[in-house]
Amino acid sequence: RIFEPFFTTKGEGEGTGMGLSVVHGIVKSYGGTIKAYSEPGKGSTFNVFFPVIERVVEPEAREEKPIPKGTEHILFVDDEHSLVNINKQILESLEYEVTIRTSSVEALELFKTKPGRFDLVITDMTMPKMTGDVFAQKLMAVRQDIPVIICTGFSARIDEEKAETMGIKAFVSKPILKRDIAETIRKVLDKRPGNSTT
């Protein structure tokens, strides 16, 4: 059951248990499997297996557009520590300044101290104590024009129409892919009033 979304061995309020579910989804999409070995008091080991494939001659790749970058300051919020650190590295590789928090409550308090400090907030949807949509509403109550992007895996709580009504600028599906998040960020930030970036 450890690979089921939202199943967790953590105590109440300590996390939502999405990490292993996301990993399992990625491995399964490549035809792989995960085996878990756990010993009480000592810890757990996870072995990941992928199928061997024949090497094929790749067709000549089409030239892709460069991944867009920026220098704005982003507040990134997710209760899964490992995902926060991975996504911080992704965003920093795109040259953004990044501040991270693993609690939406703490992130809101930080935002309230200097609401003009951030150009964009990226938040997970499913978090303990305060979900992403509620967090977004509270951010916009402090500063109406703050752009918010919500990351979501499994959620029937919010749809695109409801999000647009609330002022949320975009959705990104988990697991986050570098090109997807890079293009979404620029799409959102470049639409801000007074921004002439193309």
Automatic annotation (TrEMBL):
Residue ranges constituting the Histidine kinase domain according to the UniProt record: 1-54
Keyword ATP-binding on entry: no
UniProt cross-references to SUPFAM superfamilies, sorted A to Z: ATPase domain of HSP90 chaperone/DNA topoisomerase II/histidine kinase (SSF55874), CheY-like (SSF52172)
SMART domains (UniProt xref): REC
Keyword vocabulary terms for this entry: Phosphoprotein
Gene Ontology molecular function: any one: phosphorelay sensor kinase activity
Residue intervals of the Response regulatory domain: 73-189
Protein name, per record: Response regulatory domain-containing protein
